[in-house]
Amino acid sequence: MDKPVDKPVYETALGASSLETITLLGQDLAKDVMGTVGFGELAFWLATQRRPAPGETRVFEAVLAALADHGFTPTAIVTRLTYLSAPDSVQGALAAGLLGGGSRFLGVTEDCGRFLHDVLTSVEGPLPDDDAGWDALALRTVTARREARAFIPGLGHHVHKQGDPRTPRLLQIAAEENLYGPHLSLFAAIGRVHPQVLGRTLPLNGAGVCGAALADLGLPLELLRGFALLARTAGLIGQLAEELRHPVANDIFLSVDLNNRSVAPDPISPSSTDLGRPTAADRTEEG
After folding, report:
1. pTM of the prediction?
2. Contact present, 153 and 108 (Cβ < 8 Å)
């Protein structure tokens, strides 16, 4: 007789279905979640497998709102253009926009959270407990980055050059909920001291403060960009909805198609491939 083969078991605390019920995070989906748990709260719960406190939900949802849409960014434009090319593929249009979430758009949320976390974990001894201590740590941090000709994620914005309106509001909400933690404290201090080192004042952008807030909530650093993409998905759906009613994608396409001109080839010289590119210290980001 053949020996019985043990079936593999795949454990999950997330969704599971039986003939009559669906469970999610140990709850009955239909009875305990639907109509009771908001989507932002559920997204936090899914990522951490712990139900957030009301204050945590407020900060988390404020982050999602801050990152949902920021106008005709590359992510929005490519979503509209992809839908123009393939109106039968809403998923393709959304995916095209989400794939553009990188180091200059949306990815700053993760980059800033990771950067701040790396600085904090490198501190020997206790972390500062007042603004003077945070300013001293921030000054050392900015100076070291300047000497390394490395930029600081979350510092600078191509539009909001006088200050990103999302930043003070999110700091305020975090303070109101007693969730103004070390990542936000360090980021705010960087905002105060960096002119001493850089010789100019740059705003703390919204994507950066979102990364700091998410890190203070204890969310996995590896997933911070995922939360930015979650927020931007809602914005891209809005972009598509507006495209259906007031289309602009064809105008964008024709603007390029009807106004291009042929020029002579400009061969790349092996000795000059890195010339003229902006250095990391010259770059700013958008959220």
Report:
1. 0.88
2. yes
d(CA 275, CA 107): 25
> Which among 125, 149, 154 is positioned nearest to 137, based on CA atoms?
125
For position 31, what pLDDT does the model report? 94
Please give the distance of CA 239 from its chain centroid, rounded to a whole number.
18
Q: Residue 133: CB partners within 8 Å, gap ≥ 6?
A: 127
Q: What's residue 277's pLDDT?
A: 53
Count Cβ atoms within 10 A of the Cβ of residue 7 and give its class: 0-12 exposed, 13-18 middle, 19 or more buried: exposed
What would the two tokens of residue 180 be?
């103004």
pLDDT given for residue 83 in this prediction: 97
Q: Averaged in consecutive runs of 10 residues, what is the pLDDT profile of the chain (287 residues)? A: 79 90 93 95 96 98 95 94 96 95 82 96 94 96 93 83 88 98 97 92 93 97 95 97 96 93 90 54 49
Q: Which of 50, 88, 62, 6 is nearest to 218 (CA)?
A: 50
